[in-house]
Amino acid sequence: MLLTRLAGLLPVGLRGQGAQGFTTAAELAAATGLRCIGTLPQRPRHMGTPVCEKAFSTAVQGIASRLGLLAAGTEGRVVLVTSAVPSEGRSTLCQALAEALLAAGQRVLLLDARASGSGPAGAAGAAARPCLVAVRDRPAFGALPDAERIGEFAQFLDDARLHFDTILLTGAPVMRSADSLILGGMSDRIVTVVRRATTPRRVVQAALRRLAERSLAVEGVVLNDVAPRHDAAAAQARLLRRRLRPGASA
User: Fold this and answer.
1) Rg for the chain (alpha carbons), in Å?
2) Is 214 a residue whose pLDDT tops 90?
3) Short-list 80, 87, 32, CA closest to 181
4) What's this model's pTM, rounded to 2 decimal places?
5) Count of Cβ atoms closer than 10 Å to residue 145 Cβ
6) How open is the CA angle 17-18-19, to the nearest 5 degrees?
7) Concatenated DSSP letters of the chain
8) What count of other Cβ atoms lies within 10 Å of the Cβ of residue 18?
9) Degrees (nearest 5) of the Cα angle 234, 235, 240?
């Protein structure tokens, strides 16, 4: 009788675990089999304090470095930033990466390739060099897109590679639209953003499976909206584990 009850409770427990969000970068990497290329700290409503700005800027610089976007001599890279569901922080990451690369002297093209949405805010004039261009409300390709339109956009990206060092695409959520599956085939790197403790694990994993089914390799995942205390706790836990290893010095 007890075993029967436990067996009946097991699926419920597993469903509950799948409904939970990822809380640490290590947890996200272990569950997805992908490297976590960075964490983005929470952005308070008043993001004017030097400490907040510095922490966010440092995190973005680290992500750009791990993606190889700061390396010289690799022009015309197309980077797709996507997520499983909306409101994960895709446009925030794209905008921040664009600003970091502009500060490094690169020519950057920033495109909002989502079906809808306001898109990244702020754009330098097209005559400026380096140049940041934001295209808002680009029409969606659709679930069954027209091959001619796909070909036109692919040609546009090929042309853009000749004029820009990095092309950043804010893609649509994978579980909501086929757009990112199409754009992924035109991109050199794909990054998936996951909001901490919010997006169900099973949904993130389902989105990654959709990408894998199209033979689209994800470069890495970014955990967004991480509170500073969680970063500090994770660092302390890593330090404690190192100290407890056999042969570790005190």
Assistant:
1) 20
2) yes
3) 80
4) 0.76
5) 14
6) 90
7) -HHHHHHHHHHHHHHHHHHSPP-SHHHHHHHHTS-EEEEEE---SSTTSHHHHHHHHHHHHHHHHHTTTT-TT--SEEEEEEESSSSSSHHHHHHHHHHHHHHTT--EEEEE-SSSS--S-----TTSSS---EE-SPPP--SS--HHHHHHHHHHHHHHHTT-SEEEEEPPPTTT-SHHHHHHTT-SEEEEEEETTTS-HHHHHHHHHHHHHTT----EEEEEEE-HHHHHHHHHHHHHHHHHSTT---
8) 14
9) 95
- DSSP class of residue 203 equals H
**Per residue, what are the HEC states of 101-113?**
HHHCCCCEEEEEC
The answer to whether the beta carbons of residues 91 and 120 sit under 8 Å apart is yes
| Cα gap 41→25, rounded to integer Å | 12
Q: How far, rounded to the nearest angstrom, does the alpha carbon of residue 199 sit from its chain's CA centroid?
A: 13
CA distance 160 to 171: 17
> Chain centroid to CA 234: how far?
21
CB hemisphere CA count around 130 (13 angstroms): 18
End-to-end Cα spacing for the chain = 51
Give 119's pLDDT tier (boundaries 50, 70, 90): very low
In the structure, what pLDDT confidence band is assigned to residue 51 with cuts at 50, 70 and 90?
low
One-letter amino acid at 151 equals: G
Q: What is the largest CA-CA distance in the chain?
A: 76
Task: Reduce the DSSP state of residue 10 to 3 states and report it.
Answer: helix
